[in-house]
Amino acid sequence: METIEGISSYPVTALIIFFAFFVGLAFWVLSYKKEKIDELSQIPLNDNQTL
What we know:
By secondary structure, this protein is an all-alpha fold. Helix content is about 60%, strand content about 0%.
């Protein structure tokens, strides 16, 4: 793999992309309102609930 020019930038780029994705996902999950999470968690238990 060392014979291919510029190959060393791909692992760094992939790491940055995945890190940014997981940081964004964590921010989205942590910023979700507790009331909305409780409402969504009750959907499987309610037979007459529509989305």
